[in-house]
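Suppose you are handed only these lines of text.
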Amino acid sequence: MRRSNDELNKMRKAGKVVAEMHEATRAAIRPGVTTMELNEVAAEVLAKRGARSNFLNYHGFPAVICTSPNDMIVHGIPGDYRLKEGDIISVDCGAIIEGYHGDAAYTAGVGEVSAAAQKLMDVTEQSLWAGIDQLTIGNRLHEVGRAVQRVAEAAGYSVVREYVGHAIGTEMHESPQVPNYWPGSPGPTLKEGMVFAIEPMVNAGSYETYVLDDEWSVMTSDGKLSAHFEHTIAVTDNGPEVFTVL
Ligand code: MG
Ligand code: MG
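From them, the structure of the protein bound to magnesium ion can be written out as follows.
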């Protein structure tokens, strides 16, 4: 749906809080830190900014961020996992300001990572920006997925199918969904004031997934690495406006 200027301003504020959560958690990533400690760093940002968490208690999720190391794709629960040199860690953050949501994720290396891991992160982030570039008035929504898929597959990677991006506003997950691949139809026409969370999940191997017994953690079926980058972006008459940056 299309958001008014007043609504977009609230979403800009929520986006800034999410960007601050990124900055704070990134600064805390190092070997020996637990994923629960990253959650605490993110919770402090929410408290400082008077923001609510859209992740905490979402279908029973127990934390304010998701932390997904290595072959975990998304939805990892922060806990006693200790980051180690050479890991990659995906951190997904969200915030609510005055009833409006922001949602964004990044993957970072812990200490020194392999060239292969670095390339996967770089390509996944590039695929996000290729998708964002498609968010222009009059374009069709599924061009986002086509652009993401083109970048990821050109590098020999695969794009996760079961988990996708989404519209966002007064709920974190609104319709329509935004696949990170070409779903066979062009989708809705983009209009000024629409806001989406675009979030490619790119696997080094196959796109197949499974969920751990905790019923949250989504893993690559082949045990290979996965990366995840996400921003919340509005369609404006000046082109795509990314809310989840400082
Ligand atoms: Mg997210
Ligand atoms: Mg999202």
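What can we learn from it? Residues 27 and 38 are 10 Å apart (CA to CA). The chain has a mean pLDDT of 98.
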